[in-house]
Amino acid sequence: MTIQKLNKKCCSLAHKLQQCKQGKRCKRHHGPLSETCQAGKLKICKLTGDRKECAKMAALGVLPGQEAELICSQGGSQCLLKIHGGTLSIDQNTSSNIIVETI
Amino acid sequence: MGNKPITMALAGNPNAGKTTLFNHLTGARQHVGNYPGITVDHKEGSFHQDGQQISITDLPGTYSLTAYSVEEVVSRDFLTTAKPDVVVNIVDASNLERNLYLSTQFLEMGLPVIIALNMMDVAKDRGIEIRVEKLSELLEIPIVPIIARSGKGTKELISQALEVAASSKTMEPRDISYGEDLDESLMELIATIEQTSFLSSAYPARFTAIKYLEHDDEMLRKGQAAAPETARKLEEIVSKTSDHLQATMDVYPEAIIADHRYGFIKAILRQGVLTHKFDTDRLYTSDKIDKVLTNRLLGPVIMLAILFGLYQFTFSWSELPVSWMEALFGWLGGVVENTLPDGLLKSMIISGVIDGVGGVLGFVPLIMFMFFGIAVLEDSGYLARVAFMMDRVFHFFGLHGSSVMPFIVSGGIAGGCAVPGVMATRTLRSPKERMATLLTVPFMNCGAKVPVLVLLIGAFFTEHKALYMFLFTMLAWLVALVAAKFLRMTVLRGEATPFVMELPPYRFPTFRGLVIHTWERTWQYIKKAGTVILGISILLWASMTFPGLPQSEQDLYESQRLEITETLAKQTEKLQDALTGINQEESAATLRNSIAGKVGLFFEPVSSYAGFDWRTNIAMLGGFAAKEVIISTLGTVYSMGVIEADKASSLGDRLVKDPHWNAVVAVSALIFIMFYAPCFVTVVCIAKESSWKWALFSMTFNTIFAFIASVLVFQLGSMFS
After folding, report:
1. Cβ B291–A71 below 8 Å, yes or no?
2. What mean pLDDT is predicted for residues B667-677?
3. Pairing with B40, which of B116, B426, B546, B614 sits 20 to 30 Å away (CA)?
4. Nearest to A59 among B101, B287, B501 (CB)
5. CATH number, residue B89
């Protein structure tokens, strides 16, 4: 993969380094939380995956329509999500099942 | 009220302050910390107020009353079966919305509940103002603001709780609307439940209906066991509703239920109950710190630096008090040596008690400094961040994020205990991940292994003690994780389960809290040394003393002494040296001929591959009882050959001077001690938490692995050194 191709991918390492250098922000993102590259505010669109886990997340307030704030994106491996006044640490398996939209 | 004790339950979200309040009320010393999931089982206590005896139960923290985890099942079962007179719901005032989610379920169950609005000081610092009276009026239950850490408001809380318990008025279950579709379905379910009195002795009909809609496994199982026909009917209704919601909205009923509960809470809070002085969008200091401390690149570097700093602090600050303790026990040995006549009693007190238990107690200052450092990390909330950062690593090794806490509790930062660590694995839902965690947590450097590590590192790697301690801690983690990976790839193969944890905010540890935490752990260490270790030390001393030398051999040494005395009668100094030499030889022969000596010698042909002589074998065998015994036994073994205690050096010095010991043997011994079979109490705990089959597996697997590793280290080390 060339560096140009890498640059095209929003969450690529090359892009991140570029962002860091130029202070640019990611474009509006709609997709799994695990692929959200930039910390900031977002809206939960949908929960997918195992029914039990969806229910557990719902009990924690991670529900469609709910606004939250991504504190540490950790490059998709895990993340810290501030929601309902608390901070949740979420692993990649779970965050890949939370569909969000940046706002 | 009066003579009959009132039963009270403390319930709430994880890390809301239940155990802090429990300790404050009962004067107990249950472990508390600034991370969720410390209480995994309910704990009982009692106290008096206003002439009334109150029996109180501290329940594990839960976010809901649906059976998503063991804690939730424990809490719900207790509330429904024990039926306490009053439930004190501890709510974190600085995180009201999330905490009230559980409160709504207590209301739905119709429990006699009172809310303790805890951490009012934190809420105030965050600019959160709560109109307590208004909230109480809207929820229709009493609410008392408290600060559990200082005890502020707790008297008022208990007074009001007693009033709720004494009230003859029964609480009516609160009805929350879940929207047209679910409300209709609920009506149908409730009608069926009421007609057949389905599970009516334990739960209100509406609560059972809601749990059926939430697809609560535990409730479904109970229903099928109690009345299979009704259960089938209810499942049919739920299935129909669920399919309809899936087709029309692409959601399950439980998501709609959760959404309406949060809606109910929001509707209440928006009626002027909650006001924010500052912008609600702003990040709190805690979040800003997290941006740095949990950063993907910086976070692990800071974490390792903190760990290394902890060891540096522990070793440098405890050096002087540890030397004072050594001097104290040396002096004590001297006093006994000069006071008591020669004989078994003197030998037992010097070799069994002073050199045995004294060796363990000598490390009290070091243990105290280390526990203080750990208490700072724990109370500040940093340990929860460690769990977050380690999750990714754990996942790679086939473990779960929730496995991090059992590892830390067992001695991940050195100084924990494997017993609560094994029990803390209850928070894991997947049986295979739990078993892998349960079997690998004993690899951590628990508080009992720390003095052994300190002794050997201090004796053979004097220049870089903190660095070696740090490296051995890292090695413990690495071995535990690799062992977990091996288990997950072989006997415990299975899918990984997701990990979600609420991070507590950073808090400034209180001096009182730090002192209590440090002291409670140090006291446990001292108590163990003065009881269990003392008993085992004396027992091992006896096994190292009896049956003694045969009379013929004793006569031989006696004749040697007489001969030397006659020959060197006029050369006092030479005579003294020669007599000491004969006495040491006799002591060594006695030890070799003792029960423990024979056992040690029996294993020597095998253990010598790892560099251990028969005396080290005795210590290692003693370590099965408790790891501290390794030190006390080495102390006893190496003091049996020394006749005058006041001339004897410290145990570390004796090991350095012993021809059987060197740096390679020390590393080999350290590796064996770190990884061989867990102590007896941990083995029993593993058996209780799983089965004796797994407990025996743990003993065998760990010992074989530790021995192979030690042999490799010793053989390779000897080759290159």
Report:
1. yes
2. 95
3. B116
4. B101
5. 3.40.50.300
Q: What contacts B140, CB < 8 A, 6 or more positions away?
A: B174
pLDDT, tens digit (0-9, with 9 covering 90-100), for B401-458: 778 878 887 888 767 778 878 877 877 778 899 999 999 999 999 888 988 998 999 9
Q: Which two tokens stand for residue B366?
A: 């070091």
pLDDT 10s digits, B288-301: 888 888 888 888 89
Chain B residue closest in CA terms to A96:
B498
Domain count, chain B: 3
What is the residue-averaged pLDDT of chain B?
Answer: 87
- Condensed to tens digits (0 to 9), the pLDDT of residues B304-344 reads 898 888 878 887 888 889 889 888 988 998 899 889 988 88
Which residues constitute the domain of residue B457?
298-489
pLDDT bucket at B286, cuts 50 / 70 / 90: confident
Indicate left, alpha or beta for B703 from its phi (over 0: left) and psi (-120 to 50: alpha).
alpha
SS3 A67: strand
- Looking at the structure, do residues B361 and B485 belong to the same domain, yes or no? yes
Rounded to the nearest angstrom, the minimum Cα separation between A1 and chain B is 24
Asked, as a colleague might, if the bond just before B605 is cis with ω within 30 of 0, I would say no
- Token digits for B416? 């924990």
| Long-range interactions of B247-252: CB distance < 8 A, separation 24+ | B250/A46, B251/A64, B252/A51, B252/A54, B252/A55, B252/B215
Say whether both B18 and B141 belong to one domain: yes
* pLDDT exceeds cutoff 90 at B694: yes
pLDDT at B648 over 60: no
Which residue ranges make up each domain of chain A?
A: 28-102
Give the three-state DSSP class for B267: helix
Is B385 in the same domain as B482? yes
DSSP string, B488-505: HHTTT-------EEEEPP
Dihedral sign for Cα atoms in the order B178, A67, B91, B14: positive
Nearest CA to CA, how far is A47 from chain B (Å)? 8
> Do B160 and B200 belong together in one domain?
no
Task: Please list the residues that pair with B115 across neighbouring strands.
Answer: B89, B143
Domain A28-102: CATH superfamily, name plus number: Ferrous iron transport protein A (FeoA) (2.30.30.90)
Task: Enumerate the residues of chain A whose CB falls inside 8 A of the CB of residue B392.
Answer: 74, 77-78, 91-92
Average confidence (pLDDT) per 10 residues, chain A, 103 residues: 46 44 54 83 90 89 90 71 86 88 87
Q: Does position B228 have pLDDT exceeding 70, yes or no? A: yes
Q: For chains A and B, count residue pairs whose Cβ atoms are closer than 8 Å.
A: 128
Q: Are residues B258 and B120 in the same domain?
A: no
- Predicted pLDDT of residue B251: 87
Structure tokens at B292: 């740095």
Dist. CA B77–CA B74, nearest whole Å: 5
Mutation target vs A (from B210, B242, B294, B392; most A CBs, 10 A cutoff): B294
Closest residue, chain A, to B102 (C-alpha): A59
Do B10 and B152 belong together in one domain? yes
Mean pLDDT over B565-593 rounds to 84
Query: Which residue, among B617, B622, B716, B621, has the nearest Cα to B660 in the 3D structure?
Result: B617
DSSP state string for B241-257: HHHHHHHHHS--HHHHH
